[in-house]
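User: Could you go from structure to sequence for me? I need the amino acid at each position, not a summary. Structure tokens:
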């Protein structure tokens, strides 16, 4: 909510990675009546009214709950324009998703590499596991899926970096790379 030369932010965000050590938060907040009326704010982590609570996860991730209670943010801390933050966030999300797809391709390649090494050396029924046709077919399917994932991810990143419409390609890459990985 706007109060003169500053905005008051209230709300909670869960699962903020490394939120407990953040110097700044990039916060998206609704600033108008429409769902798309959102504004991006750069909020110092030391701002009064911010409460950080570490979250303990099974994976040991460093995540936190960040609570904003009447946090005053000066108007100069707006990133972009008032009520136009969604476009900026969408670009960031698209870029992050496309890059995550490339990361999944790299992980998949390493998984295939380790799997093929394992099936070459693991002896089952007196011979290497990799000598069985069913295992060979599964490794071949993995390689084909990885190649498809790589092509989908590269197309998404390429279109994104050229400034071309890329939402469809990013969605395809996300689905294909997730399945392959």
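Assistant: Here is the amino acid at each position, in order:
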């Amino acid at each position: 909510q706007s109060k003169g030369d500053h905005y008051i932010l209230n709300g909670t965000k869960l699962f903020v990675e490394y939120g407990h050590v953040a110097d700044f938060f990039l916060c998206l907040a609704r600033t108008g009546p429409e769902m798309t009326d959102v504004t991006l704010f750069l909020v110092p982590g030391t701002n009064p009214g911010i409460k950080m609570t570490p979250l303990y996860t099974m994976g040991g991730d460093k995540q936190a709950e960040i609570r904003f209670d009447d946090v005053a943010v000066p108007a100069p801390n707006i990133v972009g324009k008032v009520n136009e933050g969604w476009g900026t966030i969408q670009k960031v999300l698209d870029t992050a998703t496309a890059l995550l797809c490339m990361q999944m391709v790299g992980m998949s390649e390493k998984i295939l590499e380790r799997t093929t090494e394992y099936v070459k050396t693991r002896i089952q029924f007196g011979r290497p596991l990799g000598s069985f046709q069913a295992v060979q077919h599964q490794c071949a399917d993995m390689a084909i899926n990885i190649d498809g994932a790589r092509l989908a991810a590269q197309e998404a990143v390429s279109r994104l970096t050229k400034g071309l419409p890329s939402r469809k390609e990013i969605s395809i890459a996300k689905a294909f790379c997730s399945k392959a990985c």
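One structural detail worth keeping in mind: The beta strands are 2-3, 6-17, 24-30, 38-44, 50-55, 63-74, 78-79, 123-124, 127-128.
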